Amino acid sequence: MIKEINNGHVRTDYSKGITTIEFYHPQSNALPGKLLEELAHTIHAAANDNDTKVIVLRSDGDRTFCSGAFFDELKSLKNLDESKRFFMGFANLINTMRKCPKFIIGRIQGRCVGGGVGLASAVDYAIATDAAEIKLSELSIGIGPFVIGPAVERKIGAAAFSNIAIDATKWRNADWAKRKGLYAEVHTSVENMDESIKRLADSLSHFNPDAMREMKNMFWKGCENWDELLYYRAGISAKLILGEEAQMALERLREKVS
């Protein structure tokens, strides 16, 4: 099943206990608000599907897993309500992944920027290629990684998180991300990555779903306040993105890519 959204799509495929969810946007797999909403809805549906034992989250294409927030939409935000609604899209998606009782395997085939790093952090087991560099670019556009921060910090630790959040223009390679715990595996080819994902997903599809649900609850212990925390953090981002510094940064970025 495929749903077209804002020139992109969310595609769902099911086979033998494995639900694969794919997202795509022509601008480096960026995430507009409607795509964020549909992605959260699709993961929620798979979470409540009794036939689904494990979820694989992937994006289309081979260069970028996810470039984060859709800059055209960020630039178009006019007031605090619109802005808060946009950033709550990331908050709702991360919380949906956190609450999902099924393990989510992330297929990270390329670069992750900003919210894309948050997405890679929110999966339960990330398998990547050596092309999967990461960068938290939020500070460079006048805001900060407030909404995705708890997910990233949970996965790689406070020190590594603060390092990449402060040095917002520097890429970290996939080996760095693996050493810090973001990626469970890094492969030298897409074929090897996909073989490893298939092996793990097939194994998990035969395991006790009750045991996996309890394990996921255990792994995410201490995050029960994220509904309130991410709502609060979305408010910080929403206010900052409307400020003069952020608007000037977005305009410079728009001119650079146009």
Summary keywords:
alpha/beta, seven-stranded mixed beta sheet, three-stranded parallel beta sheet, 258 residues, Enoyl-CoA hydratase/isomerase family protein, 11 helices, globular, 50% helix, 12 strands, Enoyl-CoA_hydra/iso
Question: Can you tell me about this structure?
Answer:
Pfam families: ECH_1. The chain is α/β, with parallel strands linked by helices. The protein is 50% helix and 20% strand. The strands form three sheets. A seven-stranded mixed β-sheet has the order 1-2-3-5-8-10-12, sandwiched between helices. α1 (33-47) packs parallel to α3, α4 crosses α5 and α5 crosses α6. The longest helix has 20 residues, at 80-99. The two termini are 34 Å apart. The model has no long low-confidence stretch (mean pLDDT 96).
